[in-house]
Amino acid sequence: MRTNEESKTVSIDWEKHWERVDEPEGARDFAEKMADRLREFIENKKIGRMVDYGCGPATTLFRLAEYFPDIVFNGYDAAASIIRKNSEKARELGLTNLSFEQDSLPNPRKSKMFDLVTCFATLHYIEDIEYAIQKLFELLNPGGYLIFNYPSAYTRKNFREDIKPDDEYRRQRFAVLLAGKNLISQRRIGEILGARPKKFYSSIKSNIYVSVRKARD
Length: 217
Fold this sequence. Notes:
alpha/beta; Rossmann fold; seven-stranded mixed sheet; 7 strands; globular
């Protein structure tokens, strides 16, 4: 039985975080590059509706919504503050195919189904990671795709080497990962989903993005 938000571990207060923090330049640049990769991916697929879980400032979604006006895009995040900011920005840009709602992992409460589900730099904060990945996969229509990155043993090693001992903010932010409570492998992902993950993108061994397709009925 899952209690207390289905065993969700919250490392920092994301509500306050997005009230006072803008997206870092490096993160924004990467999100734009990811939008280009996803654009190439989507162009060869039948995608009618896409969602990004843990969307944050949703730079990737905004780019894709402009590229594909006939596709419906949704962004879900736990923080109401970033949902408000994104919704206002979408209205100002006239992106009627892009909307935002509040929802969170590991147990998403929305009942919509999608052809493409993405989850970037979010599972690193979720302790019950296997359950979260299963629930994301359940949001897919038959033949749909789940694309995400995940914390592995290599990720933990990289973070432990990178975060300085006196950097209390980052140590708290990535407490679950640093403690090794949510590490997972591609092999384990395949076991819990019953489908083989394929590498979608990686620049370093500690940050791999995979794509998993749901079987058609």
